[in-house]
Amino acid sequence: MEILAIGTILAYLLSTVSYFIFLFQQKKVLNRIGFTLLLTGFILQSIFVGYKYALEGHFPVYDLQGTLLVAGWAVAGVFFLLQYKFNLKILGLFAALLAAIIMIIAAQVPSQPLPSRNLFNNFWLISHVIAVLIGNASFTLAGGAGLLYLLQERAIKSKRPGFFFKRLPSLERIDATGYACIIIGFSMLTLGLIMGFIYAKNVWGRFWGWDPKEIWSGITWLLYAALLHGRISLGWRGRKAAIMSIIGFAVLLFTFFGVNFLLQGHHGQFTRF
Amino acid sequence: MGNIFLLGLNHRTAPVELRECIAFNPQDTEKTLELLKKEPSINESLLYSTCNRVEVLFVAEDKQAAVAKVKDCLSAINDLPLDRFEQALYLYENNDAVRHLFRVAASLDSMIVGEPQILGQIKNAYRTATTRHTSGVILNRLLHRAFFVAKRVRSETGIGDNAVSISYAAIELGRKIFDTLENKKVLLIGAGEMAEIAVEHLIRNRVGNIYVANRTFERGAALAKKFNGQAIRLEELVAFVQQVDIIISSTGAPDFVIRRDQVKELMRGRRNRPVFFIDIAVPRDIDPDINRLPNCYVYDIDDLKNVIEDNIEDRQQEAIKGERIVDEAVIRFQEWLASLDVVPTIVSLRNKLDTIAQGELKKTLGSLNLAEDERAAIIRMTNALVKKILHDPTLLLKRDGCRGNRSVHLDLVRKLFKLDE
Fold first, then answer.
1. How far apart are the first and last CA of chain A?
2. Enclosing domain of residue B77
3. Which of the two residues, B200 and A40, has the higher pLDDT score?
4. Percent of chain A predicted with pLDDT > 70
5. A-chain residues within 8 Å CB-CB of B177?
6. Which residue, of B283, B308, B333, is where some domain finishes?
7. To probe the interface with A, which of B295, B302, B313, B314 has the most A CB atoms within 10 Å?
């Protein structure tokens, strides 16, 4: 188990280093190494998650370590999907760095395997958590794409194309990737919330309980809904969409971590230690 | 054996008026090569001529005679007295000639460092020389090394990375905005020459519809026809800005042709799809404030020039790396050339035979039980055999048996006995 964790962290860290050097030197082989390492990390992490599943008898999303584990796994997974469709290579730097950081934190926090309860093997609950985490991962990468967009736009508008101009892809491609991230993220978040409602109805007999986590998730959902609406009906694209995705990411971070630490609620036990 | 010489002139030593007079078309080149072939002091020759340089590369035994002959040829073919251009000529010898050729092929010596055409031009010149049989062992090897060096410099340094002409810079910017220029609509305002060049580049990148707006409709229509586009009237201009993606403006209008407020209104109708203005007019046609609008990008002629200057600086930085690659290659070539000399070839040939003979002797004597004098006799016989076998080849290589073209024989011997291991 330790070896798996260390291997995963190592693969992600080396992938980050490789992508970082790629940013400077722009050698294709570095991109390929980074990608392969990221894939290696992803596979190791999948084994890790599976192993933990077998060990604990339920999908490992009931303590902070498990949640982080799946969150990092989702980041890498969503990146592969995007890479396949848009080939936005340098986004790998974000994905690898993020996956590495999440894994390192996951390795630091103590694992508190809860006794297996039937409650946890509920289909709705597990689907809810996985869908929400994939959604979060997509939104995170959308934030990364937003940052890349702002850098590249600045380079072009300033009329002094320099470091980033040469190294970052075109505005259109970054924008399209960010948009795809938002669409995936929004779909998954919506799906995740619906499953959460169904689960809540089953267990507590109500869909919505004004729990802080629920409220903030609702706010996040509304924010991304507004972003998508603006894009589709008003043509908010480019800079505006990029800034919105970055703001969205900040709100998301608060919903994921902040709420648990600062406010009380029934999600607390899963993401606190 | 012969030395390598390079005689020529380029944009640094000769003004354009002079270079115009000493330009070689393919027929002239072939004629010159035929003339040089007849000259006994010249073993191999090759000539390339571009708008920035004319250079003759040749291998010769007798420097003075050969150089005089090449100068004569340059003068005769171009019908220009030697004293008019002799001042501009430079002559490089051996290592310096090799280095110069490598630098030229790698585009380190070009007026615009990193421009890619020169390599193709030298390849053509080499093809001509091979079909005319004026290149031999040395030039063949040298040219292949030059192509290899050029390829290495291009792939290992960023020497050819960034655009260094106005229209290329504009295309590069367009690609960084739109990702691909395919099917992007282009509006041309004014029908200047510079705009035409830019449009030709765009067409090569497979842009979509092209619209031309001009003060005199007929001139615009003529240009539109040339590009398979559509002419529009100046009054319709603003409405078209809403449709197109790239706008190239080059009118002589004293005031802005497109203003910020107009574009701002249009962006909603475009649903904020990006639009790229290229303003190559002086005074400017496009309100520079448009650049401040979201998803609008304006580059005027000065902006483009700045981009190019930065890129040229970058190329110069990269050229330093290129020089290092060239230096390495010169040393490697020098080593090969030295091995082609008579003495080292004879020495290694003798060594090779000696090694074989000693090896066989050891094997044979080891298995036989012979008396001391019998052993000595066999050793003597073996050594004599080696000496006798080597006698004639050595004589041929040393004497003028190969009549000036010794390098061919040396090369053959080295290959025959696999001496380059």
1. 21
2. 3-156
3. A40
4. 90
5. 156, 170-172
6. B308
7. B295
CB B177 within 8 A of CB A157: no
Residues of B forming the active site? 51
Residue B3's SS3 state is strand
> Which tens digits make up the pLDDT trace of A3-62?
888 888 999 999 999 999 988 888 888 889 999 999 999 999 899 888 888 887 777 777
> For chain B, how many structural domains are there in total?
3
Q: Examine the domain organization and report whether B137 and B177 are in the same domain.
A: no
How far off is chain B from A40, nearest CA to CA, in Å?
A: 29
CB pairs under 8 A between A and B: 57
What would the two tokens of residue A236 be? 């908010």
Specify whether B197 is located in the same domain as B278. yes
> Cβ neighbours of residue A75 under 8 Å, at least 6 residues apart?
A95, A98, A99, A102, A137, A140, A141
Tell me: do B152 and B171 sit in the same domain: no
Virtual torsion, Cα B402, B403, B406, B410, nearest 10 deg: 0
Q: Tell me which H or E stretch contains A148.
A: helix A123-157
Residue B380 pLDDT class (50, 70, 90 cuts): very high
Note whether A154 and A242 are within 8 A (CB): no
Across the interface, whether the CB atoms of B176 and A152 are under 8 A apart is answered yes
B21 and B150, same structural domain? yes
Residue B239 lies in a domain: yes
Residue with tokens 């250079």: B55
